[in-house]
Specification:
alpha/beta, 16-stranded mixed beta sheet, four-stranded parallel beta sheet
Length: about 450
């Protein structure tokens, strides 16, 4: 009994010694504490954001932007997040000491050089270097980061890459985003992306994308892992455009915004079986819709807004409705084109359509009945030259309608005063419509949700 009491007292004593030790040095590993301090020496920290990084505060695990591993006994520094701290100066080599670093975020600062040694932080899973005024070339040493899942690179300066061969060595890479990088010399860019075996999502923002070099041997070794391609504000060599549309047969989302792409949509969808969303806004697409686009049985959303399609809406919908796209499409945005003719009877419309936007075209004639589109939630026909009468006849069965824009046409609105609409609107626009002689009673009362 007495032995047990003594033992408990000893244990309590030992515990109190270790806990007071912990208070002083914390969980921080002494050798790793020097690395952030050394890194800080190379920085210009005008706003003193890193004031907690000081040797008088011994537990470096509590310093601003630092996290230590709290799942194992060792408490290595595993995360360094210095995003948006207005840091200038050098990304100094002291960071190499942080051998267990898994997450490094230096984005939105003012660093100018991407150092080669970052390729030695081989435990990294997440590396974010976006939005710094980097100059020079991306070091191929990044290809040593075989555990990397996410890589975000970008510049406000003149960063370039002469080749992207190193990308294929990033066997774990899932998410890759680059912005404002000159790839015009990197003729292997497409093959390199195809060779990254785990890549799921690729974002190219404001890049120069040269001609795809089809003769490269690595073309054989290609992966179809990519599901999400987002390209915006880039300049793309015209012969490369068709290859973006079928970069991987597993593509689900394709976005190609404001990249000055001209001509018809390429007919490269032949083998695509998983497409859900295609957004091609703000380019110079024109001409006919290719057969293979009408045959995407999984396509839900198609946006072609802000292009120069100038056929009749009737022809356009016939092309689009040639195959099973018609049965899956829920969202169609053709606004801000030069589509002509009248709005056809809805017989050939995609039947499960929820949103239809055909505003800002050159459409004429009356609005046909919308009753064959019973799922319609949003309709925008604004800024055309539509004329004639709009009445309750147009809206039978539209119990899901929430948003209606008939503005800037020459439409006359006349509803039977006893009519009770089957829908509740959240928004209606009727600018320059002729209303009356009486204001439609349903508009003034219960058909709105607040
Ligand atoms: C470990 O660290 C993570 C990330 O900082 C934190 O969310 C979590 O609560 C910590 N767990 C413990 C047991 O302290
Ligand atoms: C890292 O990559 C560079 C260039 O790709 C290479 O020269 C170097 O040997 C690699 N380092 C290691 C440790 O693999
Ligand atoms: C093709 O990929 C495999 C595995 O990813 C790799 O071992 C091989 O070297 C690659 N071949 C070429 C020609 O790139
Ligand atoms: C496709 O895009 C949608 C909407 O942005 C997103 O929710 C979804 O996760 C994406 N799918 C894939 C496979 O990337
Ligand atoms: C992808 O599109 C290009 C250009 O249209 C075509 O030559 C190639 O055969 C297509 N690849 C697949 C797998 O469909
Ligand atoms: C449609 O656009 C094409 C190419 O820009 C042009 O040649 C043609 O004349 C236009 N057609 C109409 C009816 O405006
Ligand atoms: C309303 O929908 C039903 C089937 O849901 C259909 O039979 C009927 O013709 C539709 N009404 C109009 C006016 O189109
Ligand atoms: C208005 O609707 C009522 C009831 O449905 C109907 O009896 C009447 O004839 C309609 N009036 C006009 C002008 O269509």
């Amino acid at each position: 009994m007495r032995v047990a009491v003594v033992l408990v007292l000893v244990l309590v004593h030992v515990w109190s010694i270790t806990s007071s030790n912990e208070e002083r040095s914390g969980q921080c590993i002494e050798s790793e504490r020097q690395a952030p301090l050394g890194f800080k020496k190379g920085l210009v920290d005008r706003d003193n954001r890193l004031s907690s990084w000081t040797s008088s505060r011994r537990d470096c695990c509590t310093w601003e932007g630092i996290r230590c591993d709290n799942l194992t006994q060792t408490h290595h520094i595993v995360l360094l997040n210095l995003r948006r701290n207005d840091l200038h100066g050098e990304i100094g080599p002291s960071l190499i000491e942080l051998k267990q670093l898994r997450h490094l975020d230096l984005s939105f600062n003012s660093f100018t050089i991407i150092p080669k040694f970052i390729g030695s932080l081989t435990r990294l899973r997440y590396l974010d270097l976006r939005h710094n005024p980097f100059i020079g070339a991306i070091p191929s040493h990044l290809g040593n980061l075989t555990r990397l899942h996410s890589l975000y690179l970008g510049s406000k300066g003149q960063l370039k890459a002469d080749n992207l061969k190193w990308l294929s060595r990033l066997t774990s890479l899932r998410h890759y985003r680059i912005s404002r990088i000159d790839l015009s010399k990197a003729i292997d860019w497409f093959q390199s992306i195809k060779a990254a075996p785990s890549l799921l999502s690729l974002t190219l923002y404001s890049c120069q994308l040269p001609q795809v070099n089809l003769l490269s041997p690595s073309n054989k070794n290609s992966s179809d892992s990519l599901t999400n391609l987002f390209v915006s504000d880039s300049s793309i060599h015209p012969t490369t455009v068709p290859w973006l549309f079928n970069v991987s047969i597993n593509l689900v989302n394709l976005t190609l915004y404001y990249s000055n792409v001209r001509g018809p949509i390429p007919n490269s969808f032949e083998n695509m079986r998983n497409f859900e969303n295609i957004y091609l806004s703000g380019n110079g697409f024109e001409g006919e819709i290719p057969n293979s686009l009408g045959n995407l049985c999984t396509l839900k959303q198609l946006s072609l807004t802000g292009n120069i399609f100038n056929t009749t809406l009737h022809d356009f919908l016939e092309w689009l409705s040639g195959g099973c796209t018609k049965d899956s499409l829920e969202f169609l945005d053709l606004s801000s084109n030069q589509l002509r003719g009248s709005i056809p009877e809805m017989n050939s419309f995609p039947i499960f359509l929820r949103e239809l936007r055909i505003g800002y075209n050159l459409l004429k004639g009356p609005l046909p009945s919308l009753s064959k589109l019973p799922y319609l939630r949003e309709l925008d026909v604004s800024a055309n030259s539509l004329s004639g009468l709009v009445s309750e006849v147009h809206f039978h069965n539209l119990s899901n309608l929430e948003v209606l824009d008939l503005s800037y046409n020459s439409l006359a609105i006349k509803f039977n005063s006893t009519w009770i609409p089957p829908f509740q609107l959240t928004s209606i626009r009727l600018s320059s419509c002729k209303l009356g002689p009486k204001f439609p009673s349903w508009l003034s009362s219960r058909s709105f949700t607040q």
